[in-house]
Amino acid sequence: MNSRAHAIYSSTLGLSLQGHEFQPHYGVQLIFNDTAESVLLCAAICTQNPSCRIFDYDSSSHRCRLFEADLTNGAIIAVGSQMSIVGSVILSASLYASMYNQSCSACQENRYQTCSSTTNACQCPGNSYWNGSMCPLTLFQNVACHQIDACRSDLNLSCIINYYVLTTNSTETVYALWNTTACSDSSLASNGTGIGKYYSGEGPGNAFDRNTNTKYTNSGACNNTASGSPTCGQNTGVYLTLQRGASMLVAFRLATANSYPQRDPLMITIEGSNSNSTELTRGSSWTLLYNGSSGISTTQTRLTCGSTQWLPTNSTWYASYRFLVNLAMNNGVSMPTIQYSEVELFGY
Q: What residues does each domain of the chain span?
């Protein structure tokens, strides 16, 4: 059944047999309880409410109930009245793939994703989370979870995951990069001033020293001039081989440097490799694991961490990782470098 009461909020709905209603596991899942003249109008009310994923309607009493729920946290049950019916919003990955993490113009007035004021990109709406392909509802107490944002934070629930920081703080050799994009060969940057350089004392190892008072800066294709350009520092980054050996990366977090928010990374890529050290400058040795937001907001306080970003689709253990910044926060403003104080890699 397609409800077209409002074209932007159109949804595909599935209907149960007559004589059924929805039974939620938790009272908070009921978000609307009123009357409607028909099941079609009740369906339209659900369709125009982004939080609604299930509704039920009783044509004898005209009761229309909307639920922020699905069949993982509720059930369709048989009832005595043959006038009651349940409708469910049918979701698929195709509803999300073309919009998630894209500019807000892609999800204007869309029921499946919303414009985030933090990232200025399309994100999952409230009480849902990104699992790598779509936005399922966040979870209730004692339900198995696999990422930190999967639980109902409004109910003070959090997902406890036994992951750890993959780097050892001091024993990894971190290589600085410039003029490098995902899946391409690496160009090594060096200490100094000018094109393909990073500032003395602000080298790549600072990004993994667990100290936000140090930072890594990279000029990329620019000459370290004060004026710079809007693209200075883009396509720069690092690669390193973990001293602890092959590990599975599940999440990461960046911290801002001490100054100039326009130099913060906005969009980044992460790749993994199990090639030997002599092959790590070759683009063919890397597998793309993540391409998206850095987690740093446009209003991020200096020397603080952005939001944790997850890699829910990665299930491979890699010995080496490559981190690249492909877009800065500058929004067209000229700048001489990209800079950040920390890159935290979380995993097993």
A: 2-90, 96-161, 164-347
Tell me the residue length of the chain.
Answer: 348
Contact 189, 218 (CB under 8 A): yes
Q: Which two tokens stand for residue 120?
A: 């200025």
Q: Is the pLDDT of residue 7 over 80?
A: no
Whole-number Å distance between alpha carbons of 21 and 36: 16
Element at 34 (helix H, strand E): strand 30-35
Cα–Cα distances in angstroms (integers) from residue 83 to residues 35, 36, 239, in the given order: 14, 14, 63
In this prediction, residue 67 has a pLDDT band, given cuts at 50, 70 and 90, of very high
pLDDT at 5 over 60: no
Q: Which of 139-143, 167-171, 267-271, 309-313 has the highest mean pLDDT?
A: 267-271
Which ranges constitute the DSSP H helices of the chain?
39-47
Q: Helix count (H) and strand count (E) of the chain? A: 1, 24
Give the 3-state DSSP-derived string for 203-252, with helices as H, strands as E and coil as C. Answer: CHHHHHCCCCCCCEEECCCCCCCCCCECCCCCCEEEEEECCCCCECEEEE
> Which residues, 6 or more positions from 12, have their beta carbon under 8 angstroms from its beta carbon?
1, 2, 89, 90
pLDDT band per the 50, 70, 90 thresholds, residue 226: low
Distance (Å, whole) CA 85 – CA 105:
36
Residue 189 tokens read as 């940057």
Collect all residues with Cβ–Cβ distance below 8 Å to 215 and sequence separation of at least 6. 202, 206, 207, 257, 258, 339, 340, 341
- Of 2.60.120.260, 1.10.3720.10, 1.10.10.10, 2.60.40.1120, the CATH number of 164-347 is 2.60.120.260
Characterize the bridge pairing of strands 338-340 and 216-218. antiparallel
Give the Cα separation of 101 and 182 in Å (integer).
Answer: 18
Instruction: Look up the CATH superfamily of 2-90.
Output: Hepatocyte Growth Factor (3.50.4.10)
Closest CA to 63 of 90, 88, 83: 83
pTM of the model: 0.61
